[in-house]
Amino acid sequence: AMSYKSDIEIAREAKKLPIQDIGSKLGMSHDDLLPYGHDKAKVSQSFINSVQDKPDGKLILVTAINPTPAGEGKTTTTVGLGDGLNKIGKNAMVCIREASLGPNFGMKGGAAGGGYAQVVPMEDMNLHFTGDFHAITSAHSLLSAMIDNHIYWGNEQEIDIRRVQWRRVVDMNDRALRQINVSLGGVANGFPREGGFDITVASEVMAILCLANDLQDLEKRLGDMIVAYRRDRSPVYCRDIKAEGAMAVLLKDAMQPNLVQTLENNPAFVHGGPFANIAHGCNSVIATKTAMKVADYVVTEAGFGADLGAEKFMNIKCRKAGIAPDCVVLVATVRAMKMNGGVAKADLGAENVEAVMEGCANLGRHIGNLKSFGVPVVVAINHFVTDTDAEIQAVKDYVETQGSEAILSRHWELGSEGSADLARRVAEIADSGVSQFAPLYNDELTLFEKIERIAKGIYRADEVLADKKIRDQLKLWEDQGYGNLPVCMAKTQYSFSTDPNLRGAPTGHSVPVREVRLSAGAGFVVVVCGEIMTMPGLPRTPAAENIHLNAEGQIEGLF
Ligand SMILES: Nc1ncnc2c1ncn2[C@@H]1O[C@H](COP(=O)(O)OP(=O)(O)O)[C@@H](O)[C@H]1O
Ligand SMILES: O=COP(=O)(O)O
Ligand SMILES: [Mg+2]
Predict the structure, then answer these.
(1) pLDDT tens for residues 46-74?
(2) Do 249 and 142 meet the contact criterion of CB atoms below 8 Å apart?
(3) Residue-wise burial string across 149-164, b where 16 or more C-beta atoms lie within 10 A, e elsewhere
(4) Which end of the chain is more exposed for a tag (fewer CB within 10 A), N or C?
(5) Catalytic residue positions, numbered
(6) Quick one: which ligand is closest to 279's CA?
(7) Maximum Cα–Cα distance for the chain, whole Å?
(8) DSSP state of 302
(9) What does the pLDDT look like over 122-166, one tens digit per residue?
(10) Rounded distance from Cα 278 to ligand 3 centre (Å)
(11) Most ligand 2 atoms within 8 A of CB, residue of 95, 97, 331 to mutate
(12) pTM assigned to the model
């Protein structure tokens, strides 16, 4: 069998243009960019303001079926499709999320795509990049410190120290920090209480950076964040602790989108990085809306399967940003079809047409769900070199029975040569104007009805289980004026249900709500379902064990 170069070998060989040349493709002059080295830059707010009156380009969302642990190639297909659109003469760019160090050193790896469909410099992107995640961690940590400090110096706001909602964050998969005690050690250290860490991408600061329109909006939203409750259950806001100004200062540069390029020197915005299982899973609104002003076609992604990332893209990001997808690309892979057809991870390489057909039920469920948002859907079969013709044909035949179309795309192996067919079809659909986007629910429903609408409408659950404490909390937030917010479901990415082992298209299951959190600054209610954790753990063999510097001082092992 042919041997294929690793992602990082391909990325290292990339012939990159100076970042100013990439910016000029988007109408940016040199002083519109703040360079971070030769191949990365931040886009200035003055440039963003200067393009607001331009018409919007077409918006294309890339989502996927329920993935294997490795992921099925949404980011890879986003980049491959963007390059394919440029290849057929379109003025296109991509908007993707920044990588978190957690999965990078854990199991999933990086977030720059793969093969010949990558954004470069992938090493920088998957590590410190331009420092945005460090800034978000610092801003979050400043507030954490100021909360316990406020309590230490007399607790004028009368925070009930049993009801401090604000947790700490670190950008790492560290299960040991999930549940801890803070302020131990006696009088000098303050008032002991329970606390814990989430991973940075689950921070409300991340969500706010991804939903804010500009720095002023960012600071207002930071002030709106609820950090704790008093004994009378009234909320204590971040602005009561007077932290939002300094937090905005720490986030000043992080608020600006990052410009980089694909292997084929096409422009890419990489900005914000919430996961889609524990957060809303979409890159920033400011990057997406700016891209729509400077390109005719914008290809963007939403994390994990369409039951998570795409649902939140539609019901949270589009609703709040006033944007709508002109076409949705649903990425399917033969290997994920087999997994959804019950094949164990170790056996996904062997041909198994029956399992592919079995697993297509998952694909069919996602096609139907996406169409219920009023948007046209194209299935992109993200080709793996191990796929057989029979398996690919089985997916195509099935998709046809669902009244949709499946296009094979070989961008991982061939770059834009491999995605030109997909690009032609997607551009045609996006240009046709057939999309009639509408979110799944309107603001007037109660919070619990919104949860049910998603659980029953998207997950095909029979019921939502929530004990009295949860229902009372939702009711209290409605009484406090938060009932019109959308909900952000946190659940496993492996299944429509909350049982990660229940593959395919399960029905008759129940969705147990374990906890609800009000992100009053971001403007949504997080609904934690089943066993999902907002601080992931590392796997038995972390990817970190294979990441090192070689004799020439180059990074090896990132993927
Ligand atoms: N067609 C393909 N062939 C081989 N590997 C692929 C292909 N598409 C993606 N990958 C690899 O699979 C992993 C997941 O891809 P990614 O685009 O990150 O998926 P997602 O964004 O859906 O999580 C990455 O390591 C990527 O390099
Ligand atoms: O939030 C998860 O994103 P990916 O599916 O791209 O890993
Ligand atoms: Mg991805």
Answers:
(1) 999 999 999 999 999 999 999 998 899 99
(2) no
(3) ebbeeeeebebbbeeb
(4) N
(5) 74, 76, 97, 108, 276, 304, 384, 412
(6) 2
(7) 71
(8) B
(9) 999 999 999 999 999 999 999 999 999 999 999 999 999 999 999
(10) 14
(11) 97
(12) 0.97
